[in-house]
Amino acid sequence: MNKTAVVTGNKTAVVTGAGSGVGQAVALVLAKQGWRVAIVGRRSETLKETVERGGTDKDKLFVFACDIGRNDSVAKLGQEVLAKFGSVEALVNAAGTNAPKRALEVLSLEDYHAMIDTNLNGAYYITQAFLPAMRARKSGTIVHIVSDAGKQASPKAGPAYVMSKFGLAGLTQSINAEERGNGIRACAIFPGDIDTPLLDKRPSPPPAEARAKMMRAEDIAECVMLAINLPSRAVVEELIIRPG
Fold first, then answer.
1. Within 10 Å of residue 44's Cβ, how many Cβ atoms?
2. pLDDT tens-place string over residues 101-129
3. In a domain, 7, yes or no
4. What domain count does the chain have?
5. What's the domain range around 86?
């Protein structure tokens, strides 16, 4: 965590999975638009790389290393972020993982739990860490990067990943059902194939020519900013985006 003074102002955000891929792209766009961003991930090294990519905006990026699959670690993270920022207006859950051996026939219990802990439980823990402060302020936007696997199961995704993403979609709906009266809104983004490091965990990672036809992390970041920048009277509950 950066040892700097407490940050004030409402344009403050938390982004998980910010060391690479969509999370990194979202953090960089937020910083460019003047937001102060707590970037969260397991490894400080990759988060520091995100900071360096921030260029002239890197002073708006604050590193918080945390395993979001552990509720005790997330609770501590929430306290530290709120102590530094005072409030959090936007939360973007972009952390996600999969495993090469993902089919029902070969999926290990260890890999199953790792996916559920990161993709679903982690999103729930960190949402709960910031919801009370959002309720108190009567304001907040929560964006979950789901997957089109959260709409339709496929062998490409594997059952643990699919289960976690269906659950994440349910969490998003539950936030909107229960918290809109508190000024809090949630958006679930369901992307198709994106060229990110997660592809390397497929049983057969796609070749360069296939990746070239996929979306980029920056495309999904633009969707996130749409959900965040809309007036508070409007909410994008779901957004499906696929390669053209």
1. 13
2. 999 999 999 999 999 999 999 999 999 99
3. no
4. 1
5. 12-241
